[in-house]
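Please, structure for the following, as tokens.
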Amino acid sequence: MAQTFAKAAQSAVKLAANSPHIAKGAVKSTQEFLASPEFVKTWGTLKKEFAFPGPSEWPAVQKGFKKLIRSAQTGAFANLTVSEAAKNTLVFAEICTFFYVGEIIGRGSVIGYDV
């Protein structure tokens, strides 16, 4: 048992001695990742796609909601192709997921939700 503790202590000492090098390597690899063209392109796309609509985009948003309501009232949604219906279902699921995740983050707990 004493040998096990001695080995654990030696490993802890080695880890502590190498930790500045490990941290330096992690920072360097993180900086390289953040400077990579793939990350820059993805970050630009994410910033654009997840941004709230600006004042100039509100008329298009209102037109989309009116079209949605009109489609529900007239039954035009029944004429969608399977592909369009699947896309709409996935968008709805994405919105619901973001809502529930936001609620859980805001509440600070998963307790109280039927997940």
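The chain is about 80% helix and 0% strand. The longest helix spans residues 2-35.
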